[in-house]
Design brief:
By secondary structure, this protein is α+β, with helices and mostly antiparallel strands. It is about 35% helix and about 20% strand. It folds into three domains: about 160 residues, FAD/NAD(P)-binding domain (3-Layer(bba) Sandwich), CATH 3.50.50; about 90 residues, Orthogonal Bundle (protoporphyrinogen ix oxidase, domain 3), CATH 1.10.3110.10; about 110 residues, Polyamine Oxidase, Chain A, domain 2 (Alpha-Beta Complex). The C terminus is likely disordered.
Length: about 475
């Protein structure tokens, strides 16, 4: 059985790794991976400058989703996994040029502690009153209808919570707009809590109580403490990419090889990429949905239209390395989020040397700023110098001249642009995903993988890539999967 993989991001690499295990075991599996860029990994990229690890794309993955850590351990990278420094975890929201800490007890968008919520300057008295009254919110009867995250949050807590909490948090995760994102897909737990409890606060308190009881039961006698929220690799996320590529058959990898045509044949698939014309029994399309839509539109126009309709946002990361001797005292914590109502170019900034210990040399500080998103696509056209200047100016205005004055020059700057890289789960995404699945099921030997379908994070992409490979082997070949 021969499989073509279109797209060499982390989803495509995970699929290739799964197939390579079978090939190496002599199970008659071969594969060919096609990537338009000259390198593998997609937005997973890192570089080390004077001992400081700089992430050009995602800097970590959620620990609670196991697929990424499991793959790292399979690849021999278990000792390289490092947790986020959650003892110092504290996040701020920028409100009128002032950093306001997120109140204690806030579980994503839901306040669960009365006193911190009552005294936080993040919200007005009117909003705090509404938060208290939210405990009386009745269950929603028409829970089957999708709506935006903004509509869900505003109905429970008011517009100020959307502006100062939902929007900046979701911009940091999706680069998206809470007024467009699907509540059913992005916040399914909250939708279910509203259906069951009415009040999101009561629902979250009940869920937290169950989680705490389970944690106490499973940790008794084990000596284990709390699990860190994020996990990364000591040398950067590039370590994961390099480790996978090192395990793959070099003859099966085609870089700088954009696929120009995909054709369904009576007994398989034909893939055309430059001067390569490849016949395969099956194909895994792990490219972004907008690119997959173009290719698969040649095979099934309806499927192509559905894929092309999934919106994407772009993002920009700006890394700056400073000598701490030239800086004043930074606020405690990991960094800050910036609501769009603040009218700034930055969406967020991470104090990298605080978030993950041991990846920045002593005496150095690394700031990682995020720009772009659905509302600021035009920033992609600005020069590196203009973007760095904007970040430096806003850091001075937000943190104060005594902390990071405009005259304090960074030792190194680095800018990365990721065009149309972040899928947006808009209202109706669940139904669109079902329609896509039905069209794919009618095309034997086809699987889709990537961040456009069932989770945007690194663990989700790994899970979907490996799952696609396993399903094809199980359904399309008399050879049994080795694992």
């Amino acid at each position: 059985m021969r499989v073509a993989i279109i797209g060499g991001g982390i989803a495509g690499l995970a699929a290739a790794y799964e197939l390579e295990k079978l090939r190496a075991a002599g199970n008659g599996i071969t594969y060919a991976l096609f990537e338009a860029r000259p390198r593998a990994g997609g937005s997973l990229a890192s570089e080390t400058v004077n001992g400081a690890v700089l992430e050009l794309g995602p800097d970590s993955f959620l620990t609670e989703k196991p697929a990424a850590a499991e793959l790292c351990r399979e690849l021999g990278l278990g000792s390289e996994l490092i947790p986020s420094n959650d003892a110092a975890r504290k996040t701020y929201i920028v409100v009128k040029n002032r950093l306001v800490a997120l109140p204690d007890g806030l579980m994503f968008l839901v306040p669960t502690k009365l006193i911190p919520t009552a005294f936080t300057p993040l919200f007005s008295l009117g909003t705090k009153t509404r938060m208290a009254l939210e405990l009386l919110h009745p269950p929603r009867q028409n829970g089957g209808r999708d709506e935006t995250v903004a509509a869900l949050v505003e109905r429970h807590y008011g517009a100020e919570v959307v502006d100062r909490l939902a929007d900046p948090l979701l911009s940091g995760i999706y680069g998206g707009d809470s007024a467009q994102l699907s509540a059913q897909t992005v916040l399914p737990r909250l939708v279910e809590m509203e259906r069951q409890y009415g009040s999101l606060t009561r629902g979250m308190l009940a869920a937290h109580g169950k989680m705490r009881a389970h944690a106490q039961k499973t940790s008794n006698g084990s000596g284990r403490g709390k699990t860190a929220i994020f996990t990364t690799l000591r040398g950067g996320m590039q370590q994961l990419v390099d480790a996978i590529v090192s395990r793959l058959d070099p003859a099966s990898l085609h870089f700088s090889a954009p696929v120009s045509a995909l054709e369904k044949m009576p007994d398989g698939w034909r893939v055309e990429a430059g001067c390569v014309d490849e016949f395969c029994d099956a194909v895994i399309v792990a490219s972004p949905a907008w690119a997959a839509g173009v290719l698969l539109g040649q095979v099934d126009p309806v499927l192509g239209d559905e894929l092309s309709a999934i919106p994407y946002s772009s993002s920009i990361t700006v890394n700056l390395i400073y000598d701490q001797a030239g800086l004043g005292r930074l606020p405690d914590g990991f960094g800050f989020l910036v609501p769009s109502s603040e009218g700034r170019k930055m969406l967020a900034c991470t104090f990298v040397h605080r978030k993950f210990l041991g990846r920045t040399p002593p005496g150095k500080a690394v700031f990682r700023a995020f720009l772009g998103g659905m509302k600021n696509e035009a920033l992609l056209a600005e020069s590196d110098a203009a973007l760095v200047a904007a970040v430096r100016r806003e850091l001075t205005e937000i943190l104060g001249a005594k902390t990071i004055g405009a005259a304090v020059e960074p030792e190194h700057t680095q800018v990365s642009r990721w065009r149309r890289s972040m899928a947006q789960y808009a209202v109706g995404h669940r139904e669109r995903k079902q329609r896509i699945a039905e069209r794919v099921a009618a095309l034997p030997g086809l699987r889709l993988a990537g961040n456009a379908y069932d989770g945007i994070g690194i663990p989700d992409c790994i899970r979907l890539g490996r799952q696609a490979a396993r399903e094809l082997v199980a359904s399309g070949s008399p050879i049994a999967a080795a694992d």
